[in-house]
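Anyone? Bumping this.
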Amino acid sequence: MIPMKTGAGEGGMARNKYPEETVKRILDVAEELFMTKGYEQTTMADIVNHLGGLTKGAVYHHFKSKEDIFEAVFERANRPVVERAEAIISNQSLSGIEKIRALDESSAEGPSADMLRAMRPSSDPVQNSRLLAREFADALEVAHRYIEPVIREGVADGTVSSEFPRETAEVMLLLANLWMVPLFHPLADESEFERRVSVLVRVMHALGVDLVDWKFFDPARMWDDSWGALARDFIADDGGEDDRS
Amino acid sequence: MIPMKTGAGEGGMARNKYPEETVKRILDVAEELFMTKGYEQTTMADIVNHLGGLTKGAVYHHFKSKEDIFEAVFERANRPVVERAEAIISNQSLSGIEKIRALDESSAEGPSADMLRAMRPSSDPVQNSRLLAREFADALEVAHRYIEPVIREGVADGTVSSEFPRETAEVMLLLANLWMVPLFHPLADESEFERRVSVLVRVMHALGVDLVDWKFFDPARMWDDSWGALARDFIADDGGEDDRS
């Protein structure tokens, strides 16, 4: 396992275990509520009520708002994805393009994806503006921290032919996370998902990065992959039929 | 001029002119403050204080929040752009690709662009999440209402070769409005802008829509065009040098 760079806790030298335990309890309870009731439907009062005697003041001592709690819950749930990403990047047996494909697949999996699914942001981005903005900022951070360096590796090892590594990384992450996945952008059906995948694959091909083996690419198969799994659940949530459940 | 579809005012049958006049005064004052102080720095109290005796209650009677006022100010400032767009779309002497190019150019101009410039959203999207979400929703709406139908026209008249008109329109608007323009995504310098433009032009070319005459495309010239003008001001605002001012 790769050591974590984030979430080490404030201070890091606390002799008293109590604050960490309290934070953990708050995050556990909040995560459970976000996953069962949904984020919008969960209030700070709900979280306090499920903490078995912990006061509102104690919760606010650690977190300013429900948004703050969500940030911490998300960061914690996302740690395994971050660890997998760091492992992929440092795996010297993979070529640049193999790393990009592995990172792409990895990012559609894991508890943070499950959480977003469970939270079911409404299809109105303005109603979920903070979550959208967080995803936007996160997409650019991941682009710069992981994808851009790997595109440069791919250019060096000849598996990628990008003239614009930074911009290509940004376009890949923004389109994958804010457009292809129906988190803020409703998806009508499987065929619309296939069109989005086809467009993303084509866009990345034009920018010198083949996310899939272009010659044998079949968008219909993406529906059964990890990104498709994520998309399927959102369609089901929107009241559509998921006949493969 | 094309008749407006939006902003006709609530009710539409009001016999009393007073509410409209009040709303107009509020919007005038708010617009002036947003343009001079910036959006984040303007408070509801500032707006009330500049309304010469109008009470806070009267302002809140018409608008729930500063965000609501901004929506109305933006919508009003954007009307000329909407009118130009409707005129371009109904201009039967233009081919599909000519309409797309004209719409693309038109959208970088006008009072709404001036307002965004003046508002100077910080480079942190989470701090400006509502504005980001509004731009995101707006990009998709413009894609569906204007660009997708025109791409279909272009396919019919042979000037565009898109297999995926809806998805191509969405990618064009999201990348142009949320990525190429440095509203939420800081731009270091002219060369970074040129790389973003090059990537967008290449992406659209791959999707069958030539935003520029591809054979003679020179990204450096974009800096002097309307999108470049918008980008230049944001760089200048970020403390960079604008040596062409």
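Late reply, but here is one note on the structure posted above: Residues 29 and 50 of chain B are 7 Å apart (CA to CA).
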